[in-house]
Write a structure and sequence with these properties.
Blueprint: H1 22-40, H2 46-52, H3 55-61, H4 65-74, H5 80-88, H6 92-105, H7 109-118, H8 122-132
């Protein structure tokens, strides 16, 4: 009876024992607000539009795309076929092209954010923060 049970919320992208950092939760909320704003303005693909202006920087600058693909597979954003397709590419630019195309077509940017953090892509998170502001 003396045990305390801590109530913790699990958010999209969480894995047990590895909660999403507060700064990522804040960025997820910014992205949701911005994509809603774009959708309200008539944009059919608001997540793709959000990233469009910096896509080349995402393709060239995202590091460890294999690790990023693994994180997205663990959160069910990618299936195993998609993950292997990314890993089979030789050039990181091509891997990232496929990866971001899948993420935006599935409207999974919110799920992408923790995976970027876990794969060491804080610089990409800063770009997304700028775009969502």
């Amino acid at each position: 009876m003396g045990e305390r049970i801590q109530n913790t919320a699990i958010h999209v992208g969480d894995t047990p024992g590895n909660p999403i950092p507060p700064e990522i939760l804040e960025l997820q909320n910014k992205v949701k607000r911005k994509t809603k704003e774009l959708r309200d303005l008539g944009e059919d693909f608001p997540q793709r539009e959000l990233l469009r202006r910096k896509l080349t920087q995402f393709y060239e600058g995202t590091t460890n795309p294999d690790g990023l693909a693994d994180h997205l597979y663990q959160t069910n954003v990618l299936n195993n076929y998609q993950r292997q397709k990314i890993k089979n590419e030789k050039m990181d630019y091509d891997k990232n092209d496929i990866l971001y195309d899948i993420v935006t077509s599935k409207e999974a940017i919110v799920e992408l954010l923790p995976a970027l953090k876990k794969s060491g892509n804080d610089h990409i998170l800063k770009l997304i923060d700028t775009l969502a502001s």
